[in-house]
Design a protein that fits this description.
Blueprint (H helix, E strand, L loop, with lengths): L4 H10 L1 H13 L3 H21 L8 H9 L4 H4 L4 H21 L8 H28 L2
Helix pairs in contact: 1-7, 2-3, 2-7, 3-6, 6-7
Length: about 140
């Protein structure tokens, strides 16, 4: 068992609340509450992911700044429409992955972890697209 095994399991388990929000939306219909729960859970996960990239003294200053730049506007996100908030969050998940891939430690990372990060980022992105469609539906 490689040292990233627990990280991989936790990564997939972290997707469960996203999946539950989507399942509830499919079963119960669009709801501002579900869009909100999904959005704020997404913010929490994104903040966690960006925070894991913050390795003091372990990367150039530009990487450190970029790692947390995605979470700096979080207080303002609540002022945006749910559609804009979800769009911002969807893009930021890719930014965090690209930032992680740009770090020297990525080359040493186990291939299973790299695969998990790409799969989860892709699925989380598609989940955001689904919830964006639900947020748009609520405005009609």
């Amino acid at each position: 068992m490689h040292p990233y095994f627990n990280h991989i399991q936790l990564g997939y388990m972290g997707f469960i609340p996203f999946l539950l929000c989507i399942a509830c939306t499919l079963m119960l219909g669009s709801s501002e509450t579900l869009v909100g729960v999904f959005s704020y859970y997404s913010m929490g996960i994104l903040a966690f992911m960006a925070g894991t990239l913050w390795r003091a003294g372990d990367q150039p200053k530009s990487h450190a700044v970029f790692a947390v730049a995605t979470v700096i506007p979080f207080p303002l996100l609540s002022l945006l429409s749910p559609t804009l908030m979800l769009t911002y969050l969807a893009i930021c998940f890719w930014v965090v992955l690209w930032t992680e891939k740009a770090m020297p430690k990525w080359q040493e990372t186990h291939k299973d972890y790299k695969q998990m990060r790409f799969i989860l980022t892709s699925v989380v992105f598609v989940s955001h697209l689904f919830m964006i469609s639900q947020a748009i539906e609520l405005t009609r």
